[in-house]
């Protein structure tokens, strides 16, 4: 047993995020564990780019309100205490609503060291469409 001290806060890179996003690495499991976890904070309107995960991803919202959307047009409104799982290979994005900060814990497993495949940015039109039709 050991205390896992969070890593320093870093700004999310522009090739993976739109607007201001801040990350703290929490845990990177050692073999045989494949778990990686981070705390991710989004400013209002900030979001990830489209991406997928080889073994899926679990998001647990700790504060604020956010959106999680997939290519099929499904949108989930994420509130503090909610947990969403995206299955392996599902292209999706997530971020804060336009009028709220949002913080979530991101839990992923790596496959041969890879945790995500990053794709194009979410357009403003895609973001606004998700914002207007979020479901619970």
Strand and helix map with partners:
Elements: E1 10-11, E2 17-18, E3 21-28, E4 35-42, E5 47-48, E6 51-52, E7 57-70, E8 75-79, E9 83-86, E10 92-96, E11 102-109, E12 117-118, H1 124-133
Antiparallel strand pairs: 1-3, 2-5, 3-4, 4-11, 6-12, 7-8, 7-9, 7-10, 7-11
Condensed summary:
It contains one helix and twelve strands. By secondary structure, the protein is mainly beta.
Name the features:
136 residues; mainly beta; Jelly Rolls; two-stranded antiparallel sheet; 1 helix; 12 strands
| Spatial separation of the terminal alpha carbons | 38 Å
- The CATH superfamily is known as Jelly Rolls
Number of DSSP helical runs: 1
Helix- and strand-based class? Answer: mainly beta
Low-confidence stretches: none
Binned, the helix content reads under 10%
Summarize model confidence as the mean pLDDT. 94
The best one-word shape is: globular
| CATH C-level | Mainly Beta
Q: At CATH's second level, what is the architecture? A: Sandwich
Order of SSEs, N→C? Answer: EEEEEEEEEEEEH
Query: What is the strand tally?
Result: 12
């Amino acid at each position: 047993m050991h205390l896992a001290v969070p890593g320093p806060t870093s700004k999310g890179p522009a090739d993976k995020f739109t607007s201001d996003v801040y990350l703290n690495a929490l845990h990177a499991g050692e073999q045989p564990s494949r778990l990686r976890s981070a705390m991710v904070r989004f400013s209002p309107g900030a979001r990830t780019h489209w991406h997928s995960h080889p073994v899926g991803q679990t998001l647990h919202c700790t504060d604020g309100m956010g959106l999680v959307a997939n290519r099929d047009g499904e949108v989930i409104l994420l509130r503090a205490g909610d947990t969403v799982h995206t299955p392996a290979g599902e292209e999706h994005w997530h971020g804060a609503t336009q009028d709220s900060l949002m913080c979530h814990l991101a839990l992923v497993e790596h496959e041969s060291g890879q945790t995500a495949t990053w794709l194009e940015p979410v357009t403003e039109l895609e973001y606004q469409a998700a914002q207007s039709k979020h479901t619970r």
